[in-house]
Design brief:
The complex is a heterodimer of chains A (290) and B (350). With 290 residues, chain A is mainly beta. Chain A has two helices and 25 strands. Classes of the chains: A mainly beta (290), B mainly beta (350).
Chain lengths: 290, 350
């Protein structure tokens, strides 16, 4: 409990420069989370599901861009469908995608917290009714996890750590407490999924952070806080600049690093936290032989 | 006295003609040649690409010959791009994109999720979240990919160059290998954003619409390995969507679709002409050396066709009673699509 409080406190400190915004919809169901694997790249926002509902801006702001599906065949196509971008204080912009056709108010340039800016819809690449929400820091040119600036959701479900395995020269060794392996250099992978109370156990989400310890030493930290383009590559900024290709083995299998395992006892500890501070931990003792 | 008066009148007349007279522009006549009802399919294979034009109208896409015979036609899935070499008819979500040729034959697969976009005889795939663009060759291979820190607001290719702009105020010119030739972060307004832009065939000029307060329409000129703003005009800051831009085929004129206004800039004279414009441009053409601009527009009342001179002197306006419409020009032939009909007109200079 103390850990959870500390986690939330530190998380709050790290994002203190961003205002606390309001949720853009009243029925909140997070269907896809920031940094999740979507069509082979990081999801740069969150998907909110639910029935057709009004959408409000996260904060008061100014309409700076909109794109209406079917506006002109000469426009570039967009998987975001009909979308709008609002500018808020401190160079923060919010983007709302997949809105219903003709539900946006392009003539109202300044909006307050109470103003409806559109309705959730199914324009663009998503067939179901949903809202895609993206938060962009134009000053530091990065995408921010919107959950960092939204009121905390009530969520009691812990992230799950399923298979953990080592990979060496194409050989896959699934780890459990009785695994004996020969010494060598291995890639370490873990199948990790979060769930939210609001979206249901079976709707998998990316976690908020993953930490890896070997014999108590913290060797890897992956945080889904922000994404930034560096030298043309989209990188998880607070995680030593990990690219999508480096992190994702497949939809839910994460690459945690390559390590040399020497003979002796090794304790692998993987700690995964979701955005509400729920923690899932997996401890795997290994016997390494010559 | 009467003779003197007549001579004076004649002198004044000839002086006026000599001093103020200017040659008449070529007059274009449009003669209908054929009409094809897309409901009637007369599919037939073609071994040649000459005289075969792409169409995309009323939920169908395919190719039609210059005599009005349909070579190939298929129903639109979710979206489509088509040029004279092939087409992609795609679904709402695609892990791969299938490229077909003019007879509907399989050409190749593009192994890239996203939506395709054809511009200037070049092929691209844009990521679903609109923040990356990939250049694809005719074999379906990904030649390069560029990822940006915010949504793209425009992508256009002319000659060997690609112009990309982003909603955070970035403009970039890429060469055919995807190498950046020019990048600029626009910081001249209260809000930094780029609403659209494009580059001329020869790469000498760019046109952009940028910013809010002020919202600027700018012509950039290439000199000393860099693009510099040659001239800017301030707009009313009302545009908040993509503004279509481009150049005439001879690169002499740049055009800009703003909010409720349409502009043409004579680059040689740096002269801006404007006219009120309602709705969005659906198609725009600068046919040959005719000195004319043809626009198919769409507003809340429906489609309309405008033919005008480059100084925006309107020669023809007609509203079209249609649920879908298209406009294309191939080899001096204008193809006007109205719902399920394509009407071909010969354009002749007189």
């Amino acid at each position: 409990m103390i850990n959870r409080f500390l986690f939330l406190f530190l998380m709050g400190l790290s994002v203190s420069s961003i205002n606390a915004f309001q949720w853009p919809v009243s029925e909140i169901s997070v269907l896809a989370s920031f940094g999740q694997n979507e069509f082979g790249s990081f999801l740069k926002g969150i998907n909110l599901g639910g029935s057709s509902q009004d959408v409000k801006a996260l904060d008061s702001g100014e309409l700076v861009f909109y794109s209406q599906q079917g506006g002109s065949p000469l426009d570039i196509p967009s998987g975001l469908g009909t979308y709008v971008i609002y500018q808020h204080d401190n160079g923060i912009r919010s983007l709302y995608g997949h809105l219903q056709d003709n539900s946006i108010h392009t003539d109202k340039l300044i909006v307050s917290l109470e103003d409806v800016i559109g309705k959730t819809g199914n324009t663009g690449m998503d067939p179901g009714s949903m809202l895609y929400l993206q938060l962009i820091d134009t000053e530091f040119k990065k995408y921010i996890n919107p959950l960092l600036s939204l009121p905390l959701l009530n969520d009691q479900l812990k992230p799950r750590i399923k298979n953990v395995y080592l990979l060496s020269r194409g050989e896959k060794i699934i780890l459990n407490s009785k695994t004996n392996i020969k010494s060598g250099v291995f890639g370490l992978f873990a199948d990790i999924r979060d769930s939210g109370d609001n979206a249901g156990f079976y709707n998998s989400l990316a976690p908020f952070s993953i930490s890896l310890y070997l014999n108590g030493e913290n060797l890897a930290n992956i945080n889904f806080e922000s994404l930034k383009v560096v030298d043309g590559n989209m990188l998880l900024q607070e995680s030593d600049g990990i690219s999508f290709e480096e992190l994702y083995k497949n939809d839910w299998e994460f690459f945690l690093g390559e390590f040399e395992f020497n003979p002796g006892d090794v304790m692998i500890e993987i700690s995964v936290k979701d955005f509400s501070g729920n923690e899932g931990v997996k401890l795997i003792p290994l016997k390494i032989t010559e | 006295m009467k003779i003197i008066k007549t001579i004076i009148i004649l002198l004044v007349f000839f002086t006026y003609v000599i001093v103020f007279g200017r040659p008449l522009n070529n007059e274009i006549t449009y003669s209908p040649v054929w009409v094809n009802n897309l409901d009637v399919t007369e599919n037939g294979k073609s071994d040649s690409n000459t005289g075969i034009y792409p169409f995309h109208l009323d939920g169908k896409l395919g190719y039609i010959t210059d005599t009005g015979k349909i070579v190939y036609s298929e129903d639109l899935l979710y979206g489509a791009v088509i040029d004279d070499k092939g087409f992609i008819n795609y679904s709402r979500q695609n892990n791969v994109l299938v490229v077909k040729g003019i007879n509907g034959q399989f050409q190749n697969i593009i192994d890239k999720p996203g939506y395709p976009f054809f511009s200037g005889n070049r092929r691209f795939v844009l990521s679903y979240d609109n923040n990356s663009v990939s250049k694809i060759n005719l074999s379906g291979d990904i030649l390069w990919e560029k990822t940006y820190g915010s949504s793209l607001s425009s992508v256009s290719a002319r000659g060997s160059l690609v112009f990309v702009s982003t909603t955070d105020g970035g403009i970039q010119v890429l060469d055919k290998l995807g190498e950046s030739l020019f990048y600029k972060q626009i910081k001249s307004s209260r809000i930094n954003i780029v609403y659209g832009g494009s580059i001329s065939d020869d790469g000498e000029y760019m046109v952009t619409i940028t910013g809010i307060d002020p919202q600027l329409l700018s012509i950039w000129k290439y000199s000393e390995n860099n693009y510099q703003i040659e001239n800017s005009w301030s707009l009313s800051s009302e545009l908040r969507r993509h503004g279509l831009t481009g150049f005439s085929t001879d690169n002499r004129y740049a055009y800009i679709e703003a909010e409720q206004e349409f502009f043409i800039i004579d680059i040689k004279r740096m002269k801006l002409n404007s006219m009120p414009f309602s709705g969005r441009i659906q198609y725009i053409n600068f046919p040959g050396k005719s000195g004319l601009v043809q626009i198919l527009g769409r507003n809340k009342d429906g489609y309309y066709l405008i033919v005008m001179e480059k100084d925006l002197n309107k020669l023809f306006y007609a509203s079209l009673k249609a649920n879908d419409s298209s406009l294309n020009i191939y080899n001096n032939k204008l193809l006007l699509g109205i719902d399920h009909k394509i009407i071909a007109y010969n354009m002749e200079a007189m």
